[in-house]
Design goal:
Helix content: under 10%
Radius of gyration: 23 Å
Number of strands: 13
Mean pLDDT: 81
Strand content: 35-45%
Structural class: mainly beta
Order of helices and strands: EEEEEEEEEEEEE
Number of helices: 0
Distance between the termini: 67 Å
Low-confidence stretches: none
């Protein structure tokens, strides 16, 4: 099968769609494949099951929080809200990257808390870190940056 705008086929004969086929309600699709030896064309119908794996997203509309510099370890900072619109593999877990160990996230609830009581308004009045959600197929959402404004105590 020659590559085209919609499909590729690997050496094992697995046909993969290059983009969303636009039918979110169907789990099976008929695909008509034409084989040719240069003289005779033969068209066959391949019935395939669509396996969707759309990356989850972080649905929060605001990525900011405020926390006092004398907040205690465990203080709640932010809750990640994720969504996996493909309906499959949709149990999400959550994570943090780039936080210098000051924050942690409950991977099941998305609640971000202070992990180390090292906030200092005079030294660093804002802290930033990135958050993400990940589905059961290990497809990760694009990271989103959270800015925490440190309040002077």
């Amino acid at each position: 099968m020659a590559d085209n705008a919609f499909f590729t086929m690997d050496a094992a004969g697995v046909i993969t769609a290059k983009k969303d086929l636009g039918n979110n309600d169907a789990s099976d699709q008929d695909l008509f494949v034409t084989f040719s030896d240069g003289t005779v064309d033969q068209t066959v119908t391949v019935v395939g099951t669509i396996t969707r794996n759309i990356a989850p997203t972080v649905e929060n509309t605001t990525f900011t929080a405020t926390l006092s510099e004398n907040a205690v370890v465990g203080a709640e900072v932010f809750t990640i809200i994720g969504d996996d619109s493909d309906g499959e593999n949709s149990a999400l877990t959550y994570g943090i990257i780039s936080d210098n160990g000051k924050f942690t996230v409950d991977e099941n609830t998305g609640v971000v808390t202070l992990a180390a009581a090292t906030l200092d308004y005079e030294t660093n009045p804002t802290e930033t870190f990135s958050i993400y959600s990940i589905d059961e197929k290990s497809t990760q959402s694009p990271p989103e940056t959270v800015t925490v404004t440190v309040g002077d105590a």
